[in-house]
Amino acid sequence: MALVINDRVKVNSTTTGTGTFVLGATQTGFESFATGIGNNNTTYYTIFNQGTSEWEVGLGTLDATSANLARTTILSSSNSDSVVNFSSGTKDVFCTLPASKAVYLDADGAAVGVEGGNISTLGDTFSNYNDINTNTTTTLVATKNSFLAGIITVSGTAVWTISGTGALKII
Asked: Do residue 111 and residue 83 come from a single domain?
């Protein structure tokens, strides 16, 4: 089971209550959960009951046929961020990336949404950019000048391969 997020995954549902959602027809111009997410995988979802104020955003798990979405963890909702007891009506059910789970750069280029100040890349975690395991090969990808804003201390033997364009500044 993997966490999968994909664009343009949207279906209808007429499920009511607080339980697992039976996923209905794929909406025109979109993919089904089976195609876009895949059997037994988890994804972030939104459910919106058309014409009402009922909505829910959470982490859900698809069953072995991708026909049903179990509402595993509720992140936010119209019910004070608790599970919504959906009333009758047609619901839009779609894959989303919740704002509370996003990592992005603010207007100054600093990372926002990085829990505990840690950045993960290729399976290695860097605590405040200072905790690099020199026994492994690690690739750092910088998209802004401030990505490695901090001191990197290297103990032992270090081999650095630097490629790309632009200036490298080591202070």
From this structure: no
pLDDT tens digits, one per residue of 12-64 = 999 999 999 999 999 999 999 999 999 999 999 999 999 999 999 999 999 99
Cα first-last separation, the chain = 43
Furthest CA-CA distance within the chain: 65
Residues 95 and 113 in one domain: no
Give yes or no for a contact between 73 and 82, defined as CB atoms under 8 angstroms apart: no
Residue 168's alpha-carbon distances to 127, 128, 133, in angstroms, are: 22, 20, 22
Question: Any alpha helices (H) in the chain, and if so which ranges?
Answer: 33-36
The token duo for 85 is: 């007891």
What is the Cα–Cα distance from 81 to 56, expressed in whole angstroms?
8
Does residue 92 share a domain with residue 21?
A: yes
Is residue 112 within 8 Å of residue 100, measured between CB atoms? no
Instruction: Evaluate the CA torsion angle 106, 37, 2, 71 in order and state its sign.
Output: positive
119 and 41 together in one domain: no
133 has pLDDT over 50: no
Domain total of the chain? 2
